[in-house]
What we know:
The chain is mostly helical. It has helices spanning about 20-30, 35-65, 70-85, 90-95, 100-105, 120-125, 130-150, 155-165, 170-175, 180-190, 200-210, 220-225, 230-250, 255-270, 280-290, 295-315, 320-335, 350-355, 360-375, 385-400, 405-410, 425-434.
Amino acid sequence: MSSYAEDQGAHAPETPFGAPRAVAGRLSRLGAGPMPAWVRYPAFGLLILFLASVDWNKAAYILHRQPFAIDYLPLWTAGRMALTHPGHLYDFQAITNAQRWAIGALHRERPWIYPPSALVIFSPLSLAPFWISTAVWIVGTIAAQLTGALKFISRDRILAVALLVALPASSLTVVAAQTTFLTAAAVAIAVMSLERRPIVAGILLGAAAAMKPSAMVALPLALIAARAYRPMMVAAVTGAALTLATAAWLGPGVWLNWLEALPRFERVVLYDPAFLPSLITPTSAGVTHHLGPDQLLAVRAVFVAAGAAVVWQTWRHRTDPAFRVIALMAAGLFASPYAMRYDAALFAIPAVALICRATSWRGVLVAAAAFGLLSFSIQPYAGPYAITAFVALTSAMAFFSHERARARLALASANAGPLWDPIAANAEGDRAAA
Length: 434
C-alpha cells in the first residue's frame, strides 16, 4: 500500500494477463499521486458538516433522556464523599443516594468505580458547587485534548481540530462530561515525548494509568517492547506514589473496596439492556449474542492475545506515535469487558493525525476510511465491530504498507508547522524514507 509508484520501472512480461496487470499498474500509480487541495478540503468539509449534524441530533436525543454532564455527577459526588465518608465510596447505593438532589427518582444505580488515585483530581474539584466544577472540568478537558492534538499533529492543524470536534465520540464525551479527553491527551503527549523527555512521558503515563487503568493495561508490555525502561520506571514510581498517597489519606482498605467493586460494576453495566447498545468492546458483543460465561471468557482471551500481539509488534518495530497510541488503546479496549461509545475518543488524536499526514490519494482514502469506522462506532450495537475494524485497518497500515507509505503517514518532526498547510510535500517523511 505504497504512497509512491516506485515499481513502475519493472515491466511485466507479455502474458494473457498483461492487460489486466497494466490496468492495475495504472490504478496503482494513480493512487500514489498526490490528492489535490481542491478535492481534499471540500471533501473533508462536507464530511465535517455531515458529522456535525449527526452530533447535534445525537446530543439532542441524549439530553432529552438525561441531564447534561450526568456522568460527571458521580465523580463530583465521590470527590466530596472522600472528604467526609471515604468508607462509602464504593457503596453503590450510598453514592447513588448522595446524587438524589440531581437525579430525582431515577432507579438505576449511579456508582463511582474509578480507582481511589483518581480522587487526587476530583476531590479538589468537588470543593466548588456542582455546575461551577462541571464548567471547569469540561473546559479543562477540552483544552487538554486540543493541546495534545496540537502537540501531536504538525500540519493541517485547522483541519485536525475541525475533525476532532466533529467526531461523534467527542461530542458524547462533552455531553456526558467524561474523562476520556484527559486520558487521551496525556497518552498522546507522553508517546510523543517518550525519547526526548522520558521523565515527562513516564509521569503522564503513570497519571493516565491512575485515572483510567482499564485503558492502560498493556502499558508495561508496550514500554518493554520499545525498550523504554526509563519512562517505565518513572511511570511505576508515579503510580506507586499516587497509590500510597491515597492509601495514607483514605486508609488502605479503600483499595480493597475498589477491587471488590469492579465485578459488581461489570454486572451492572454489561448485563443491563439499557447499556448494551452503547458498549464497544468485543466482550459486550458476546453478551449481545447471548454467549455463555465460558464462551465470553474465550472471546476475551482471544482479543487479549490479539491486542498484546499488536502492541508488541507496533512498539517493538514501529516508532510512529500514531500507531503506537492506537495499539495501546486497542489492547486496553480488547481486554476490558466494558467500555462506552464515548471511549472511542481515545483513538481520536492518532486517527486525525493519519489523515493530516497523508498526501496521496491512497493514503488519504485509507486514513479517511479508518476515521469513518471510528465515527460509526457510536451507532447502537455497532461499536464492537467498528472499533475492531478500525484497529485491523490501522494495524494493516502499520504492518503491511511499504516503508515509504509509513513515512508519509508518520507524524514527522517535533516542530509544529503552520495551522494550515495545503498538501505540501512531507519533507520529513521523505527524508525518513530515503
